[in-house]
Amino acid sequence: MENRLKKLMYILLIAGLFLLSGCGGGGSDSSIVNAAQEAEKKWVRKYLDDVYLWYDEIIEVSPANYASVPAYYDALLVKTRDRFSFSMPVAAAAIEFQEGLETGFGIKWGWSISGTLFAYYVDPHSPASASITRGTELTNIDGYPVASLSSSYLSNKLFPIQPNETLNVTFRLPGAATATAATLISATFTTTTVDEPLIIPLDDGSKAGYLLFNQHLATSEQNLIDAIAYFKQQEISDVVLDLRYNSGGFLYIAEEVASMLGGEALQGKVFEKLVFNSKHQEKTNDPSSTIIFSASDSNNTLLPLLGLKRVFVLTGGRTCSASESIINGLLPYIQVVRIGSTTCGKPYGFIQENNEQQAYFAIQFEGINANGTDNYKYGFAPTCSASDDLAYQLGDVREARLKAALYYIHNNSCPPTSVAKTPQPTLSDDMSDNGFLPLMDRKQGLKLLLPTSH
Questions:
Q1: Which terminus of the chain has a smaller tally of CB atoms within 10 A, N or C?
Q2: Together in a domain, 79 and 159
């Protein structure tokens, strides 16, 4: 029974922007194409009226005013509430969410507080990792100073959606006095969703475990299990889970992470309950919509259980959806110390619906914890504020957010401002910043998914 419910929990939570074009119609007979598109638009309208969480707030627009079905779908969304719903081709969704493949340079770019453009994360499996690291400042693209280029130009250049695209750049590595020129070539590679776990010796002789966790994909499951098993074998006393760039993924992955951290004391208790719109109370009341902490993975294999009384989570504006579910799901039971800045704020989710090779992800439900709360629509505020400084690599004990977590472990309190202060450059963590937002990976969207493939 538990394994069957696991299969129903393939819910994905991820952050970013989808700027993908919709699938177009082809053929020589335009009347046939138009008729097919009209039918698809009717399907979209009926679909949203049935399952959309805010179905009764949709403002009607004429379908004839929109050249594509995805454009019409987007126009119907209630933007005052919903910055998350999206659509994409079915094949692309399968590649990204199930296979964990990414096409591009594998670099996440962001503006520093001082207004310069930096690489804040470089996937170790990406084509750019040989030449660019976290903290690298981008100065020129194709011979033009970055400061002179528009956000749309930068977004298109820095996040290609096809392999073998080239980009001539000039950059300055961390600590370097002079700039370096290089040509980046995009490729398709397997995303690093879970980095190598690290053991950090503590002053009292005990050990803490640090884990950088970037995305809740199907490919994350075994790596997460292996990392927690390693922490258990090393008899760690605390875990620092770095979710600062984790825009989300499958909810069943979030439940497994929370189950492993909380351990046996949480088994059988409520992790998250899904609440659907007023037309579908039968879904809200369905037992499969109440997700419980469990002792086994999606293959019904026993999980390593740590049984922690508290957990440290490194957070930021890109900590979203499934990552926030870990925090919210654990809060009724154990102390969750949040280090960094406020999370993105998304207690909502989707169930994938496919029509004519296009996958639609409209918000269908809210997720609440055992206390019946989802009070993070504006994000979880940090327990201790700490900047996302780019002077050190992730996992370095001198890096501001990890340093603050270790201070809390040793002193059971947030570090004083003088200790938490970080050197420049410091990454801007304001997701509403007009300069940063268009530079988000165009292939990712703020989302919580329940794909129909499971």
A1: N
A2: no
